[in-house]
Amino acid sequence: MKAVLDALPPDLVARFEREGWLLTRNYNDEIGASYAEAFGTDDRSAVESYCRDNAIQFEWQPDGGLRTRQRRYAVVLHPVTGQRCWFNQVAFLNEWTLDPEVREFLVDMYGADSLPFNTRFGNGDPIGEDVVALLNDVYQAHTRREPWQAGDLMLVDNVRTAHSREAFEGPREVLVGMADAVRLADCVPTVAGAAR
Q1: What is the CATH number of the domain that holds 26?
Q2: Whole-angstrom distance, CA of residue 139 vs CA of residue 158
Q3: Which helix (H) or strand (E) holds 86?
Q4: Domain span at residue 47?
Q5: Closest Cα to residue 23, out of 152, 137, 115?
Q6: What does the pLDDT look like over 74-113, one tens digit per residue?
Q7: 47-84 burial: b if 16+ Cβ within 10 Å, else e
Q8: Three-state SS for 117?
Q9: 72 within a domain of the structure (yes/no)
Q10: Contact between residue 74 and residue 21 where contact means Cβ atoms under 8 Å apart
């Protein structure tokens, strides 16, 4: 997303390009998806194999849950155009994006290190509430809304465009089709030596 990338402070972009970002997920049977739901199997060896194949660190918890960590690029080059793109979920999966009451409850219940998901800078440093607020403000400033109507067709380039949906009421049916997959390895990082 070039517009978002261009709107962010250069020093923040430089840090994310240099370090990447870290996603930690905690899977358990109490909150969020279990590892069996997330990975489509309850076979631990299959989960471990998937993690190894995709550069995901994993750690089985004493309660039977699973904690994963993956360090990824924050800025990549588009595989077709070569354009620099802000391509990550740093803000969406960060604890500061949660409703404050929900965040407080989850921290009290599970501890700060055992939230269902959280993001950090690639070196492991916490991402402050101010940075997440800035990222969300920039996304908001560059959001385009399109009201759906029956028969609409939307094509989204997942590398160039962040996408989501807002709350809605009533029935709806949306059919989704995926085109050719683009592997992250196809989107070379913008800085040599950056996180994978």
Answers
A1: 3.60.130.10
A2: 15
A3: strand 84-86
A4: 2-186
A5: 115
A6: 999 988 899 999 999 999 999 999 999 999 999 999 999 9
A7: beeebeeeebebeeeeeebbbbebbbbbbbbbeeeeeb
A8: strand
A9: yes
A10: yes
